[in-house]
Amino acid sequence: MIANRGEIVVRVLKTLQEMGITGVAVYSEPDAKAPHVLAADEAYLLGPAEAAQSYLNQDKLIEVAKATGCDGIHPGYGFLSENATFARRVEAEGLTWIGPPPSAIDSMGGKVGAREIMIAAGVPVVPGTDGSESEVDALEAEASTMKYPVLIKASAGGGGKGMRVVHDPADFRNAAEAAKGEAKKAFGDDTVYVEKYIERPRHIEFQVFADGHGNFIHLFERECSIQRRHQKIVEETPSPAVTPEIRKAMGDAAIAAAKAVDYRGAGTIEFLLDDDGSFYFLEMNTRLQVEHPVTEEVTGLDLVRMQIEVASGLPIAPEALDAVQRGHSLECRVYAEDPAMNFLPMSGTVIKVVPPTGPGVRVDHALRDGLEVSVHYDPMLAKVITYGRDRNEAIERMRLALREFVVLGIRTNLGHLQAVLDSAPFVAGDMSTHFLDEHMPGWKPDELELTEEARAGLMLHDLVTVGAGDAGGPGGAPGLGSPWRTLSGWRHLSWRERV
């Protein structure tokens, strides 16, 4: 059973089907006709739309797994994927948890505790406090011994919540109190700590794998520096900044981190890479990552199959032990959000979706015509992945794929992703976690671009009039009144191009 929803369920199901394993999906009431439900061998209702009553309902998930005769649960990512309590419950019921040991999840779940473990393991960490003090007075005193700017971070959190950058010591107290309050509200824990703020870091993560036979490996790095509100939107491998020497040092540190918590299965060790080549442990994600496809593209490995095999007690396959990087891969995350409204998450109905196709193009998604995008769940709609012989080819293929991706009826960040891929700094590989603030501040979509409603109306008009030869579409040549041009698929022509 896959205890999740959306594209990751579809992704896991594909591997299960290849392996001849029955795949069971679960769903909430609004997801009754979602693609992940239709793709499964069996599917069962959990409850209402609210995640607490459906996808986060541990009792119901266990009940469904046992009732359907499942012998394993894959948690996907998000929801309960890094919940040690759920992992223990799965194991206590005699089911196989397709993830790391619950003890490893616990060890890496708090940033302060994880930091202490990494220090003991000899993994470089950003200079900062040890987390033993969380009172504002004590934190302010410790921060005074560091060179500003400093970063205040919530111990229990992620996604930028409970985080403040302080450039001036006079602002420290207000920032610390705000961070503590935000952390308490978001995570139920107001513990924060302070560390040196790296001015222009790159975000580099290493995919690690371990089995129950003493094998610990890494499958190279992924660059995840381009982020909005601390959420990754573009990932790639190899990183343009990682030299063979840095790769060796970071890879060794990643394996040391995994060994320090007796890890098993798929995990990710995340680092900050400074301009001078120094790197520092950031956190460990004890699950499969959203961006795992780029690693699959350059190694030729199926990471989900590896997860299942390791959880079944098998050793890591020889081809993974001897894996090498070949070519280059990019991933762009497509979200239901309105770039013109400060990327406000959107809900609504997907009227028409046409994913891009072509050489070196992969789209992981759970979209269909008529799909209702709910306010209750993460707004990520799809992941576009491209592969090329080198970085330039991967970029060229991604540009074309983003132009050809049709999602009508709901606003998306496709235009923003295109702008990132077209920017000179990105092409040059000049990136940091501040990329969007430095190179695309205040970016807005083209004001002359057609609204989603107008685009949908034009498309429906064209489909109706295809028989009269007036418009383009499947099997038809584009006419003068059509907003479509037939390439390897359809692509929308902006209003400027049409006039």
Describe this structure in words.
- There is one protein chain.
- This protein is an alpha+beta fold and 499 residues long.
- Among the domains are: 77 residues, Rossmann fold, CATH 3.40.50; 156 residues, D-amino Acid Aminotransferase, Chain A, domain 1 (2-Layer Sandwich); 69 residues, ATP-grasp fold, A domain (Dna Ligase, domain 1), CATH 3.30.1490.20; 47 residues, no CATH class.
- Helices cover 33% and strands 23% of the residues.
- It has 18 helices and 23 strands.
- It has an eight-stranded antiparallel beta sheet, sandwiched between helices.
- Helix 7 crosses helix 8 and helix 13 packs antiparallel against helix 14.
- The protein is globular, with a radius of gyration of 23 Å.
- The N and C termini lie far apart (52 Å).
- The C terminus is likely disordered.
Cα separation of the termini: 52 Å
> Which regions have little confidence, pLDDT < 50, spanning 5+ residues?
464-499
Look at the structure and give the CATH class of the domain at 99-126 and 199-326.
Alpha Beta
Rg estimate, integer Å: 23 Å
| CATH architecture classification of the domain at 99-126 and 199-326 | 2-Layer Sandwich
Main sheet: strand order: 12-11-8-9-10-13-20-18
Portion of residues in helices? 25-40%
CATH homology-level superfamily of the domain at 99-126 and 199-326: ATP-grasp fold, B domain
Strand content: 15-25%
Structure class? alpha+beta
Biggest β-sheet: count, sense, barrel? 8 strands, antiparallel
Number of strands: 23
